[in-house]
Amino acid sequence: MGRRVPVDKSVSTGKGVSRDIIVRDGDVYAKVRKLVVSDTPPHANFGPTFEVRLADAQAVFIRKDPPFDTAYLLTTLLLERLRGRTVLMNDPRGLREANEKLYALNFTRWMPKTVVTSYEDEIMAFVRSVGGTGVIKPLDLMGGTGVMMIRDGDKNARSIIQLLSDEGRRLCMIQEFIPKVTLGDKRILLLAGKPLGAINRVPRSDDLRSNIHVGGSVEECKVTEHEMAIINDIAPKLAQDGLIFVGLDVIDGRLTEVNVTSPTGIQQLSRHLGREVSNDVIEYVERATEDFRPALRSIPGV
Known about the structure:
The chain is an alpha+beta fold. It has 3 domains: 89 residues, Rossmann fold; 65 residues, Dna Ligase, domain 1; 103 residues, D-amino Acid Aminotransferase, Chain A, domain 1. Helix content is 23%, strand content 29%. The chain contains 7 helices and 15 strands. The strands form 4 sheets. It has a 5-stranded antiparallel beta sheet with strand order 13-12-11-14-15. Strands 1, 2, 3 and 4 form a 4-stranded antiparallel beta sheet that branches. A 4-stranded antiparallel beta sheet has the order 7-10-8-9, covered by helices on one side. The longest helix is centred in the last third of the chain and has 16 residues. The relative contact order is 0.16.
């Protein structure tokens, strides 16, 4: 298998993502830096930049916070050159297919009532049909950004819709409001279709959103039998699309999102379980590399 990278060390491309990818003579290279992570400040230290032929790597993690923009799209297309040559987490083709809001529409039987539209009147009609309260979400943001409640009769409702839809030029997802969101929005982390565990993100008393990024608190929780039924139903599709490390968002037993680009929560889950859950992911990758056994070149400084 070649030389293993220690668990506390990896290599990372810069912030530009596609800017740091190079195709030369049909092969893919990347400008990378060694990264050393620590529990004590400074928590991350980067070394000098050097170049790696990515087919020589044991695995390539494709991990970027949304939005899935043009630079990211181009990166996934370039990384197609690595298919069958090294482990890709997650598969670039699967990432292109899986918008984190829209991918859940493959499993509507588990979702709250949902519409996707840019039409203001249709949104208001939907909100009335689900009892007068809905939640509107941009399709391309993260961390709760832009997620708002809209109510029938609220004089701000149409203004909110116009803002998020760019006056009808951008699609939005609108879902029925689930009152039990006040009890938490569960993040279930999956590895190869199996649950690593779950955390419950509870919103602040003055906020609709439960995302950790905007101040949601984290509680320990278990994966229920109902949630296991959702997982078992979703797992074959995830495997088909090469989506190995995934985060499901479930509110009161209903699936709201499928996070595939940069699912968070593994640190909080590790603290609740009292063990380093990221080791499970690394061990999975190490086993998966045995299917490729690339002729590894020495990576400077590792």
